[in-house]
Structure formats: C-alpha cells, structure tokens
Amino acid sequence: MTHSATQFISPLTFQALSGNPVALDLLDADEENAMGHINLARWADIVLIAPATANSIAKFSLGFADDLLSTVFLATNCPLYIAPAMNQAMWNKSVTQENIQRLKSNGVHFIGPESGDQACGETGFGRMSEPNDIVIALLKNSKNSILQGINVLISAGPTREPLDPVRYITNRSSGKMGYALAEAALNVGANVTLISGPVNLSAPHKLQPINIETAEQMYHAVLSRVDKYDIYIGAAAVADYRPVVCSSQKIKKQADDSIIKLQKTRDILAAVASLPKNSCFVVGFAAETDNLEFYAKNKLTQKNLDMIAANWVGKEQGGFDKDENALQIYWNSGNKSLKMTNKTQLAEQLISLIAEKMNEKNTT
Ligand code: CTP
User: Cα(194) to centroid of ligand 1, in Å?
Assistant: First the structure.
C-alpha cells in the first residue's frame, strides 16, 4: 500500500480482509538485510497495481523509486499490469496518455479503465475495471493459461423428471462441483459453456448458463453443440430413469399404495464419447456408495471415456451438497488421488490434470 492508499483504508483492515501481510515501507527492519523491496520484487510472479492513480502511473513511467510500490515496480523482472483509476479529466490529459504510451512501449500491460460514473461525481473514462474482470484479464495473459482458447462444455447439477405439474423425481446434487469446474476452466483461459440443471448457485462472472430441467433436455443441449468443443465434462447428476407418464393434471391421492413406472433416460456421456470422429476429450463423474474403484473403472471403459473422476457419496464427508470433496481420478494408463479440499481447489487440480492428459492424448 502506498501512503495515500492507507488514508482510504487502514493496512489492518486490508490485512484482515485479504488474510495476507501488508507491506508499506521501503526499508523493512524485519527483513534480514532490510531489503524487503528487493525480496518482494524477486518473489512476485506478476505485479498488478490496482487501483493505479495518475500520480503512480507518472512515477512508473519516469522510473521514480521513492516508495515501496514504485521501487518494487522498478526492481521486478516479472510481468507488470496496471489497472488505472482516476478522474476522467486526469485520464484524458495528454501527459497521462504519454506516460501510459511510454509504459506500454516498455511492455507494461493495462487493464481498463472503464467508462461510467466516478467517485468524484463526473462521468467518463477512468473507472477502475471490475475486480473480476481484472482477474480474468490477468489469468488470460499469464503463463497459467493452460486452456487458452480451448472450448470446454460442462454439464452440472441435478435433473428433474416430472410426474405431474407439481411433482418430480430428482437427486441431491447441488451443482457446486460443475460450477467450480466452469470457474476454474475460465480462469485458465478456456471458453466455457455451462449447461445446468436447477441449482441455487450464481454462475461464474460473465457466464450465462444454459438452463435445462430434464435429462432429455440436457441430452439435446449437450449433443446439439458438443462437436464444437475440445473437452466435455459430464459433472451433472443426470437421472437414470424418468416416469413413463407425466400427467398433465395433478395426480390425486387414491389407493394406499401406488406404483410409478419408470423408463431409462439416454446416457449423455456415453453418447458424446461414442460420436463418430469424436476428437473431444471426454470426462465423466462417478458418485458411488461402495466399490468406488471397481465401478469407476467400469464406467471409464464401458462408456469409452478419456477420464473419470470418482467420489464417495452417502458418507459423512464430502460428496453431494457439500463444499468439500475428495476425488479418485482414473484414465486408461493411470490414476491420481485428489485429497479432501474445498471444491474450488479441487476443480483447479482436476482442470490442470485434464489439460495435461488432453495434451498427452493430442500429441500421441
Ligand atoms: N450420465 C449421463 N447421462 C445419464 C446418466 C449418467 O451423462 N443418463 C453421466 C453422469 O453425468 C456422470 C456419469 O455418467 O458423468 C456417471 O453417472 P452415474 O450416475 O455415476 O453412473 P451411471 O452410468 O448412471 O450408472 P449407475 O447409476 O448404475 O452407477
């Protein structure tokens, strides 16, 4: 934080909210050689200045190094990003634009600013880009973009199979894993389409899910577009059976017992994997209460998948509707355990394994 930044928000608040130490001073007495700025400059993979004022940008452009921030900026060799935030008149001044051009020609990346209402009451260019947009821009440009430009189709959540206008058969899937996978894939540069059953989740930023209810609707949503995708991840808990008859009127209570006749739904995952000239990397899920490895490997071979991610359900820990999970991943020539962690981290690990195995498949 610069001295000015600490006047808006206290370092303690920043530290508590981010859970990270906040560096303020150029010479850090706690560092062994009092060279905190050099250590920070060496340590960083990316330096992002957000929000960057006109004053900071002017300093960076001229190579000033009179506080910790400008010194780290000058001392580091990692990629540099600036997300400007300033009054529109300051942004439009030719001196500011010259500073920006000079930085750009030295390889510094700019994210934003956007046009809109400003804190000073004026309207125009100078609003800092939304934090989520900054993160996406950073990740897209970074060396972590392992799925840059790759098209990924993900199905998530449960399906609902109606019995009549008010009742349906469904399952306990929350959709959390599928949504976390969509976010993780986006964050490493993929173009993601999410096909979602009914869930109580907000979609990742700028992603508009295709909402469906039944297994048949999910089948059509997936099969009508999957040929344009490089990866299909079937994370949805698709109903295996649906009622043979869906009554158009509410079914009335009559006999003491009643039988619902069910028919099999179409297997979406198997259908994708068996498409002729299929070049898509197909990943399935297997939620099991017993014989996890046996059933998962069976599904891998019977459905002709590239990979399957298996997890226990109905146990105390993890599984459906939980924030944490553990996965056993199997592919034809190997397997890997991803240990119990939150679904965000688990999704990141699974996405990087998928990227690795897809590259291996495409290069053999
Ligand atoms: N799946 C699918 N379409 C179906 C049923 C399942 O695409 N009609 C997919 C799921 O999205 C998941 C995988 O198949 O990726 C395995 O689903 P799961 O319910 O664990 O297994 P099933 O094949 O349905 O077999 P079973 O229910 O007997 O375990």
Answer: 18
Determine whether the shortest distance from the Cβ of 177 to ligand 1 is under 6 A. Answer: no
Taking the CA of residue 236 as reference, the ligand 1 atom at the shortest distance is 11
* Residue 264 Cα to ligand 1 middle (Å): 11
Domain of 291, in residue numbers? 151-362
What is the structure's pLDDT at 277?
76
Last residue of a domain, one of 90, 117, 141: 141
Residue 199 one-letter amino acid: V
Q: What pLDDT sits at residue 137? A: 84
Q: Is the CB of 348 within 6 Å of ligand 1?
A: no
pLDDT over 90, % of the chain: 74
Same domain, 84 and 128: yes
d(CA 185, CA 146): 9
The helix/strand/coil state of 10 is coil
Which of 219, 226, 267 is the pocket-test mutation for ligand 1 (most atoms within 8 Å of CB)?
A: 267
Ligand 1 site, residue 268, Cβ cutoff 6 A: yes
Q: Is residue 95 part of a domain?
A: yes
What distance in Å separates the CA atoms of residue 309 and residue 328, rounded to the nearest whole number?
6
Quote the ligand 1 centre to 268 CA distance (angstroms).
8
User: Are 198 and 73 part of one and the same domain?
Assistant: no
* Active site (catalytic) residues: 120
Length of the chain, in residues:
364
161 lines ligand 1 (CB under 6 A): no
At residue 307 the predicted structure's pLDDT band, cuts being 50, 70 and 90, is: very high
| DSSP line for 111-158 | ---EEEE-TTS-EEEEEPPPHHHHHHHHHHHSTT-TTTT-EEEEEESB
Whether 236 lines ligand 1, by a CB cut-off of 6 Å, is: yes
Residues 132 and 180 in one domain: no
Quick one: pLDDT at residue 363? 84
CATH code of residue 70: 3.40.50.1950
Question: pLDDT for 144-181, tens place per residue?
Answer: 788 989 999 999 999 999 999 999 999 999 999 999 99
How confident is the model at residue 62, as a pLDDT? 97
Confidence of residue 27 (pLDDT cuts 50, 70, 90): confident
Assess whether 316 and 170 both reside in one domain: yes
CATH of the domain at 171: 3.40.50.10300
